[in-house]
Structure formats: C-alpha cells, structure tokens
C-alpha cells in the first residue's frame, strides 16, 4: 500500500462588492442615510431611454453626510433588516 498525499484545495472566492454613487435624500435616522441612485436604461422594444431611481439605506458611522451630498458606497454584511451598504467616501 502506497502513501498518497491528499491535497486539500481551499477555493477562496474573491469578494465582489457592488459600488454605487448617489445623492443623499434623507439623513434623519441615527447613523443611517438614504441615498438615491439614478440609472439610465433603454427599453428593449421601443428603444426609448428612461431613468430609474432606487433608494438604498446606507450606514454613516459619524453622521457627517447631509441632504444633497454626493456619496460613494459599497456592499457589506447586513447591519439591519434593510441596511446592507456602507459609505466609502463623499
């Protein structure tokens, strides 16, 4: 019987975090801001360009962002029921 080395390969997948840029629409909550992201799309049948708006609840640790500020944010672990994003920079 021969001794065979078994290789255990650990397949570590790189974490792909989505990144968005948007405008703060609300900063009334503690350590949370609501950011609106606009995206331009083209209708598949009519080829008309239209915009869609999506609002995200983003974690703001220092409460430093106010309404109207432009912020960049990335995906992170869930912090609450709706909050899965954190601010990277303004």
Automatic annotation (TrEMBL):
Keywords: Ribonucleoprotein, Ribosomal protein, RNA-binding, rRNA-binding. One of its GO terms (molecular function) is rRNA binding. CDD domains: Ribosomal_uS17 (cd00364). One of its GO terms (cellular component) is cytosolic small ribosomal subunit. It comes from the Bacteria. GO terms for biological process: translation. The keyword rRNA-binding applies. The keyword Cytoplasm does not apply. Pfam families: Ribosomal_S17. HAMAP family: Ribosomal_uS17_B. Belongs to the universal ribosomal protein uS17 family. One of the primary rRNA binding proteins, it binds specifically to the 5'-end of 16S ribosomal RNA. PANTHER family: 40S RIBOSOMAL PROTEIN S11 FAMILY MEMBER (PTHR10744), SMALL RIBOSOMAL SUBUNIT PROTEIN US17M (PTHR10744:SF1). Part of the 30S ribosomal subunit. This is Small ribosomal subunit protein uS17. It comes from Candidatus Falkowbacteria bacterium GW2011_GWF2_39_8.
């Amino acid at each position: 019987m021969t001794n065979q080395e078994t290789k255990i390969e650990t397949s570590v997948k790189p974490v792909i975090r989505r990144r968005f840029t948007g405008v703060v629409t609300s900063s009334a909550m503690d350590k949370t801001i609501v950011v609106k992201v606009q995206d331009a799309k083209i209708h598949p049948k009519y080829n008309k360009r239209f915009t869609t708006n999506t609002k995200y609840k983003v974690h703001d640790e220092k409460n430093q962002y106010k309404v109207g500020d432009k912020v960049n944010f990335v995906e992170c672990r869930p912090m609450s029921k709706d909050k899965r994003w954190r601010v990277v920079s303004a």
